[in-house]
Amino acid sequence: MVALIRRLDPKGRQPGEPDSDMLKKLVTAATFLTLLVIVFGAFVRLSDAGLGCPDWPGCYGNLVVSADAANHERAHELNERKAWIEMTHRYLAGTLGLLILAIAGLSWMQRDRDHFGSPALATCLVALVAFQALLGMWTVTLLLKPAIVTLHLLGGMATLALLVWLMMRISARARAAQRGHARNISAVASALGIVILFVQIGLGGWVSSNYAGLACTDFPLCDAQWAPEMAFASGFHVVRELGVDAAGEPLSPEALNAMHWLHRLGALVTVIYLGALSIWLARNSTLRVYASLLAGLLVVQIGLGVANVLLGLPLALAVAHNAGAALLLMTMVMLTFRVRSKGENVWP
């Protein structure tokens, strides 16, 4: 039987060893599909379509938006446009889940091939996507609780980061360049940059999930002040319903100010740190492309953030701002991988 399989397989692979190119293609496809899911998820949230379907995983009792929804107890709430937006996001997310399952399966089948490394990362991705599915369900069933919506965003970003890392790890060029795993000051600084960026993305998700994007309508001031009146305890109370504080009262303008202002402060810290990091890492010729891309994306992201405030949060710009955050994260992960794998230390 083994001889027959080898005869049928012109590449001479052992049984159970799929073409390595297939894994690379699946990881690349999953990475860019994750980016699409994140951007489309922002469109769902910002177009107020998060409850376009009041049930999960179907929509008014169906797996597609259908006239049969007339039989559903909440059929009178149906908005077909919002329902299709929500279901499209679910279809994309479901496809991504299947891709990641395939990646995990292939990773385990190739676990003995040294250049692919441990399948642990792909297995973690399966667990993360399963948790993301739960968060997606709770987002609907718990009526857009800010904590759930923000966690759902962060889970999507974490999925993207892990897929980018996996894509870099299995690429032929990265394997050829890899010389151990140096933990020098540059690698630590890059990893810290990812942490700072992730926290800032979380703050942005909190602003968006609480609809605090226009709490301050001027820039760089907020309500014509550098530090307006703010209520941090109320604004950042995690376990509460959308639009109300812990006591069930409507969120005050001061609470919304606190969310928006802290996101601006986080943006300042992020820009200063990542900007300095890009300048330092650009001193190394092998990292210059990544460092330049990081700097360029920072400039674009600043412009989008300011434009969103001054132009009243237009949908296209708000979605682009979310996409910019995802692209920054992808760039930081790639840069960190290169620094860590090559052992580059460009810091004095």
H/I helix tally: 11
Low-confidence stretches: 1-12, 14-18, 344-348
* Global structural class: mainly alpha
Shape: flat
Report the strand count. 0
**What is the helix/strand order?**
HHHHHHHHHHH
Ends apart, CA distance between termini: 60 Å
Please tell me how large the radius of gyration is. 23 Å
In percent, how helical is the residue content? 55-70%
- Number of self-contained structural domains: 2
Q: Give the biggest beta sheet.
A: none
β-strand percent reads under 5%
Mean pLDDT: 88
Describe this entry's structure for a reader.
Helix 2 (20-46) packs antiparallel against helix 3 (80-109), helix 2 (20-46) runs antiparallel to helix 5 and helix 5 packs antiparallel against helix 7. This protein has eleven helices and no strands. The chain is mainly α and 348 residues long. The protein starts with a helix and ends in a 6-residue tail after the last helix. It has helices at residues 2-8, 20-46, 80-109, 120-141, 146-170, 172-177, 185-209, 232-235, 253-281, 288-310, 315-342. The chain is flat, with a radius of gyration of 23 Å. The longest helix is centred in the first third of the chain and has 30 residues, at 80-109. 65% of the residues lie in helices and 0% in strands. The protein has two domains: 16-177; 181-348, no CATH class.
